[in-house]
Amino acid sequence: HADFDSLDMFPRTVQQPRPPIWVGGRSEEAHRRVAYLGDGWYPSQASPGMLREGRRRIEELAAEAGRVITDFGPQNELYIARDDAEARATMRRYYNRFTTEEALFSQTFAGSPARIAEQMMDLHEAGATFVDLRPVGISLEDLLEQLHLIADEVVPAIGGQLTPTV
User: What does each C-alpha distance from 75 to 13, 51, 65, 158 come to in angstroms?
Assistant: First the structure.
């Protein structure tokens, strides 16, 4: 803990109710932090399997603590284009920290609007209540095109089943 004198922060946070606390991470310790202290789980680059298993574990730990956690959703990198092959090639070039193709394309979104909607619904079926999309911006024009594809084609395709944020 640290104390500071004569320090102001604006805008002030709402105190009651307080803002929800979302905890990231995929380790057992992260799951415990969510279950005992958090209001939601916000892992980075989570595949549907990772989300399903993490949610199951967090709900188990939260129940032991007499708590209920209701917000679950990953932040996943995204590259959306009209063509699946183009999107996958771009993601492969610009987001290559993954060591395998399987990891890259199960823990990120890459594809056409129909493919992205399918991937988002896979996360929803795994227990996601929201998903935070992180577009890979090659240029401003490219980023704007991706945002239009998300708004015009992906959001209507998922039909309010899942809340995407960008």
Answer: 24, 11, 26, 17
- Where helices occur in 38-139 by DSSP H, the ranges are 48-64, 84-94, 101-107, 113-125
Query: Per residue in 146-161, pLDDT tens?
Result: 999 999 999 999 988 8
> For residue 58, which phi and psi values (nearest 5 degrees)?
-65, -45
Instruction: Calculate Rg over the CA atoms of the chain.
Output: 18
Give the DSSP letter of residue 66: T
Cβ atoms 78, 109 nearer than 8 A = yes
Q: Write down the H helix ranges in 2-47.
A: 28-37
Query: Closest by alpha carbon to 87, among 155, 161, 158, 154?
Result: 154
Give the tens place of pLDDT for each residue, 22-62.
Answer: 999 999 999 999 999 999 999 999 999 999 999 999 999 99
